């Protein structure tokens, strides 16, 4: 394992310290908890927006703390949900009395820990509710299973719910627009190489020198198919077909696109991916309103990318366009 | 021994913690076949916290011993297994209430309460290839043992054997819950890590009472 | 070679196409040239700011096109300087009559190609001048050699010269503040793993599983020492000693810090690096005015990081603080 | 043959291009020992552009043939070697001016002009472990040949041999210019890639005139 770290068991604490040192104007640490809180929070009258999950997905989620986005993020160990007390303390720290919305990715661990936190918050007199993001079409949805995973589409939920909350909307209104976003966003990813969880010290799966995995999750969970590596255009076509056919997206739709790097894949390649994404949308008569290319929801140093497509309506467009000033998501 | 006292539960928790910590890598490897290879790290972390908690448990009623242990697991583990294992201990402790000892009948009630708690929280059931597939047969074995008036040693040996069979049974299952469900059919042949830890728990109980 | 690309010889063209498709409100392509130009350029009365160099360093340099930063960027093949005609056309495209400053990193190729462009521009009646960035203290400076390399410190030059130009300063003034920035910025990097130039198809150097190279350049040029991998804090201390002792930076100095990822290194590790950087500055009585952590000047998928420190004065502080709205560098 | 005509220069350029393209990987490998392993790719790219240019060179004066070739290299190569190799051809062509032929004396003048151009642009000199260490001895050999009235074949054979020795000599040098200077002493023992290409250029000339 080659990493710029000290002791593997300290990576999360040291990362959080480094973040606060880098961005004191954006975040402060919640003493005793693996939580970063907006330096300005709580904002009087504003609904608090909290996200969280395992670490290793940076800049998600703490990098999205800032004006017009998140008020707090709880950070579990690498790829492992934080415990309920962290969620609870984060919610308490950002509640101004208007209530708190937690944006949770759909994994058993995140679901259960945040649910416990929600129940605990009730006792503490904080109104907390949750929205569950499940945008990954690689996994079949079904009421009999945990359902689809939450991946990079979550960032759209942060942006849009964050903008709504910044406008002074009520908890119900913020939750409603977050749910609308979830209902309209679909994503899928693929990986070229694994990543190494520091404390494990070795790769969490292996791929041969000429192999890739389509549908790979952001923790290295298996995807749909493992196959010989193909040209970028072919890979993008395969992902886009799954994504667009899911809602489905149809001619005339206006969408936002996010091409997200999983960690080791250079920006050069993400733009090559975006070129094909744009071509496919054009060919299908889907018009792209905004495009985001970069690293938003990573899996440590995994090589690969995900594509997210969000169907827009006038409300979502306006909220997506609203200014934001988060550590790793700025819109002037 | 037919009744477990507070001190017994403290010993059992210490034994469970030590056993789990020793098997950390093995549990990670099992989780690696179906999930994200962190279950061993996660539950070993929880067990370290349990070891640190032990001094605080001295003198508490058995229900509180279990309840505090559960809360400690919830607070220290994270992941999917944190709330679930925490719930197992918390519900068992709650079920026992203020009683100062637990015999076969109590243990049967306690672990059936644990089972219900896990099912509700995890929105899962028998056959989903989770720890429930070890916990449910163990709880059932305890109920059966209580009904026929078995000794504590017999009851816990039965529960341990049932849990072990439950672990075996998970090999053939396709997961619906937790990260394991992403592997779908590719998971056939591999046993569930959470179920394996439940078997370990009952093995510690059985060995203690034997 | 595992990459999300199509034909290796098309990576630059396809990347540029993908960038324009993603950010049409920021950039347009200069027909027939590997150049992206600010969609708003030329801005009447404003000095044009052009940068460029080999590709493979994304977001540098095209990602820094935008209000308050660059007006154009020329993109050579991977790790290879663009030819003079690209620099020339970029300069012509952004000149409003106020002249053009080219920000060039100190490599033989970039120097010579941009010099030729400067001479050609004279014939075309465009006033072009250059500033050469050489911030990398890994390489000894000497008038007998090409001198120090230009690395991530270049981004500070873009930001500060860009802000000055946006204020309507003259070509001489913009050049002067760019040179002041160069005089006050020092950087150094290290690598944990090599990268693969697509057309070469194999790594450009190799490091054993337990080796790192201190002082590695952003094209994989050798550094100062190759040694066993060490804890992050030790590595950072070694880099910071070289950097801070160079000008030297002294107690009472106010600085800006950039912790720059070379490609594959996760943001988590960059923040762990920043933690130690901040500690070292504090211990030396150097106060950090602003910190930038992320990928600014990469080397494809190389694992590693560089640290840049810029000594500030009131003018540089004000220009660093000025708003910017570039594709990959936004300050609200 | 004692004088090189426009057609000869066209053949020489075609020959140089074909040889370089064939040795692309070899040149990359040499650059890889000292620099960034792209010199072969870069100059082969320039030579592809030269091949495409050939039809346009028909009927041009020798000076223009060289000048246009140089400009094509500058526009197509990039990197450090683009301006330098471009300059070599451009300066040689400029030196020849409107003359319709070039003999030994002209070639000596031409390549000495190239040398001066490279030194000025590259701010470099003999001993810096660059292409100059092949170009300078070759130009000197041509001057000596011209002074003693050697034949074209002899003169170019001398120039080629001198360039070859120059390449050998770069092995012992420590680079001061270009990317090779970053390797410093670690570069000892490796020959310079740019110098190797210069040797190739003179080999093409020598073989043609032999
Ligand atoms: N919904 C669920 N219901 C019951 N048990 C579950 C559920 N989800 C996961 N588990 C159990 O938890 C174990 C995985 O725990 P862990 O690795 O900590 O979780 P994760 O990595 O998915 O967050 C599985 O082996 C399984 O027994
Ligand atoms: N300043 C210089 N003066 C003369 N020759 C140089 C100079 N810099 C580089 N070279 C020559 O150029 C060759 C490298 O060319 P190339 O690989 O295209 O450049 P780079 O990769 O450094 O941009 C070297 O082998 C050397 O002969
Ligand atoms: Mg996990
Ligand atoms: Mg797991
Ligand atoms: Mg090069
Ligand atoms: Mg080179």
TrEMBL record, chains A, C:
Task: Please provide the record's keywords in A-Z order.
Answer: Glycerol metabolism, Kinase, Transferase
Which terms does the record give in the GO molecular function aspect?
glycerone kinase activity; phosphoenolpyruvate-glycerone phosphotransferase activity
Q: What class of enzyme is it?
A: transferase
List each copy of the DhaK domain by range: 7-329
Q: What is its EC number?
A: 2.7.1.121
**Which reactions are catalysed by this chain?**
dihydroxyacetone + phosphoenolpyruvate = dihydroxyacetone phosphate + pyruvate
Provide one Gene Ontology biological process annotation: glycerol catabolic process
Tell me the pathway: Polyol metabolism; glycerol degradation
For this entry, the protein name equals phosphoenolpyruvate--glycerone phosphotransferase
Tell me a GO cellular component: cytosol
Which SUPFAM superfamilies does the entry mention?
DAK1/DegV-like (SSF82549)
Which Pfam families does its entry note? Dak1
From TrEMBL, chains B, D:
What are the entry keywords? Kinase, Transferase
What processes in GO biological process is this protein linked to?
glycerol catabolic process
Q: Which PROSITE patterns match?
A: DHAL
Gene3D superfamilies in the record: 1.25.40.340
List GO molecular-function terms, semicolon-separated.
Answer: glycerone kinase activity
Q: Which SMART domains match?
A: Dak2
- GO terms under cellular component: cytosol
Which Pfam families does the record cross-reference, listed alphabetically? Dak2
**Boundaries of each DhaL domain copy?**
7-207
Asked if the keyword Repeat belongs to this entry, the reply reads no
Q: What is this protein called?
A: Dihydroxyacetone kinase, C-terminal domain
Taxonomic lineage is: Bacteria, Pseudomonadati, Pseudomonadota, Betaproteobacteria, Rhodocyclales
